[in-house]
Amino acid sequence: MGNIVVGAVLAIIIALAAVSGVKHFRGEGGCCGGGCGARSERKKLSAPKIGEKRIFIEGMQCEHCRCGVEKELNLIEGAAARVSLKKGLAVVEMSRGVSDAELIAAVERAGFKAVRVE
Fold first, then answer.
1. pLDDT value, residue 42
2. Of 35, 94, 100, 116, which residue has the fewest beta carbons closer than 10 angstroms?
3. What is the DSSP string of 25-38?
4. How many helices (H) and strands (E) does the chain have?
């Protein structure tokens, strides 16, 4: 009887670990502090769009990473960002001239490396 209980407990632990592993490799788990919770409202520009820049980013591994980068970029006045975890890319729409240095600084504040800005 004791062997059955121990076996059942081990089976549950293995199942939970497998589910967690799958979430992690999909980028849904929290490699650095958890997910970002409920999706926040996407930032919209308050003035007409005058340009767009693409930032290639290294180091993002999960949804929490993506949310952190997007949040920092969206703090820039006149910028609205969408970050893709799978592509390692942020697309930033601008309603004013935003310098590459300002965008790179925001990515670095989030703890990641901006490889290049186009």
1. 83
2. 116
3. HHT-S-SSS----S
4. 3, 4
What residues have CB less than 8 Å from 8, skipping those under 6 apart?
Answer: none
Continuous segment of H or E residues that includes residue 22: helix 2-26
Whether the predicted pLDDT of 28 surpasses 70:
no
Residue 50's CB is within 10 A of a number of other CB atoms, namely 13
Residue 56 has pLDDT above 90, yes or no: yes
Q: Which residue has the higher pLDDT, 6 or 107?
A: 107
H or E element at residue 11:
helix 2-26
- Phi then psi for residue 86, to 5 deg, are -65, -35
pLDDT for 29 beyond 60: no
CA distances from 99 to 60, 63, 81, 103, 115 (A): 22, 26, 14, 7, 15
- Which sequence spans correspond to the domains of the chain? 1-29, 51-117
Nearest alpha carbon to residue 86 among 53, 106, 63: 63
- Which numeric CATH code is attached to 51-117? 3.30.70.100
